[in-house]
Write a structure and sequence with these properties.
CATH architecture of the largest domain: 3-Layer(aba) Sandwich
Strand content: 15-25%
Helix content: 25-40%
Mean pLDDT: 92
CATH class of the largest domain: Alpha Beta
Strand order of the largest sheet: 3-2-1-4-5-6-18-19
Number of domains: 2
Largest sheet: 8 strands, mixed
Shape: globular
Length: 382
């Protein structure tokens, strides 16, 4: 019988949680022992008793609980000091940010621990229930529109009143992935005039199906990766894109950028000279601000005013709706554990031949097993 350990997140950094009481019931039906750190769900309104009633066991001694773990599940990756307290056979599962953690990967290799990165779950039909990046990005798209609404100096819908007609706000959304499509849908529901752009021409129909207009820019050959992400553009393509977008940005009340390239620095889409052309009081929300930004003037974790335009780069998008974000993430983890579960042994099993783990497993038994991460860190972790 596997022991699944869930730890309390550092709440000064993270509002979400990896386990809700409903998930405990599912894990218990599998045959797992579920250990929950005291106050794990307190920020979401759940008491320890809620987890106990669902079949979980509450612990206060983290070191002792970690020493029993077959798997440790969390939102943020475990600190190295905690990883060292787990058995060598333990597998940690979390958002790991594998492209920016060479030192932690070195430590995991030295300690022979297994690590699954939720960012690396493949985007396939089989993995939809496990796809944590998509579930969190969908909420991020919604939150970014709300952030823009509360910071703009006008309403989004058209309104006809005895005092005159108020024109609808013009919202321009760059990027029509999961976050972008949710942002489009939310802005349209609020009555805005929405225009969107994506380097992948095949998403134009999805944008239009939501009632938005698609900005056509001829960049030549673009397209998607095998995981559905937009391919990186050449310098020449980026220049064409920026020039074509500039006029649309300049006349928009709200601009939301969602262009993120997993594992690489996000592309610069809006330069300072373009921001200077926007109307004072306009708002830009930069989804990628934490990773370097799509907007030249944005700063990670900050809201600032540049040339009269408010630029929002707070970054904790899904965390703004932490209860729903936690429910979705906890369900993603649950689906992954169910997929990994060996019914005959009543235990969680790291099967390197499984297609999902082939993509998401980073380290295992002292080896860097992920091909993509290995190619990036061949020298750093040698």
């Amino acid at each position: 019988m596997s022991v699944l350990v869930f730890v309390k997140e550092p709440h000064h950094l993270e509002k979400r949680c990896a386990l809700l009481p409903d998930n405990v019931k599912v894990y218990k039906k599998l045959g797992a022992t579920v250990l929950c750190e005291t106050e794990i769900g307190l920020t979401l309104g759940f008491e320890d008793q809620d987890y106990i009633d669902a079949g979980g066991e509450i612990y206060t001694d983290r070191s002792l609980a970690l020493s029993k773990a077959d798997a440790v599940l969390s939102v943020r990756p475990l600190p190295l000091a905690d990883i060292e307290k787990t058995p060598e056979t333990c597998c940690s599962i979390s958002f790991f940010d594998p492209f920016n953690n060479p030192d932690k990967i070195k430590a995991l290799l030295a300690n022979k621990r297994s690590t699954i990165s939720m960012e690396l779950i493949p985007r396939s039909t089989r993995c939809q229930k496990m796809d944590a990046l998509s579930s969190q990005a969908s909420l991020a798209g919604y939150v970014m529109v709300l952030k823009a609404m509360t910071n703009i100096n006008k309403i989004l819908p058209m309104m006809m009143t005895p005092a005159g007609t108020l024109k609808p706000a013009k919202v321009f959304i760059i990027g029509a992935g999961v976050a972008g499509l949710q942002a489009i849908a939310t802005a349209k529901r609020m009555g805005a005039n929405v225009i969107a752009y994506d380097t992948r021409p095949e998403v134009a129909q999805q944008v239009q199906s939501l009632g938005a207009k698609f900005l056509n820019i001829d960049l030549g050959e673009t397209g998607s990766t095998d995981q559905g992400y937009a391919k990186a553009l050449t310098d020449k393509q980026l220049q064409i894109q920026q020039q074509a977008q500039a006029d649309c940005i300049a006349t928009s009340d709200i601009v939301i950028t969602t262009a993120q390239l997993f594992g690489r620095k996000p592309p610069l889409l809006i330069t300072n000279d373009v921001i200077a052309r926007m109307k004072p009081g306009s708002v830009i929300v930069d989804m990628a601000a934490q990773d370097g930004g799509n907007v030249e003037a944005s700063k990670a974790g900050e809201t600032l005013i540049f040339k009269g335009v408010k630029i929002i780069g707070n970054g904790d998008w899904a965390g703004e709706v932490a209860l729903d974000a936690s429910q979705m993430y906890a369900n993603n983890l649950q689906a992954l554990v169910q997929d990994m579960w060996n019914k005959d042994l009543s235990a969680i099993e790291v099967n390197q031949e499984d297609d999902v783990l082939l993509s998401a497993l980073v380290t295992h038994k002292g080896e860097l097993v992920n091909a993509i991460i290995k190619s990036q860190y061949s020298k750093e972790v040698a």
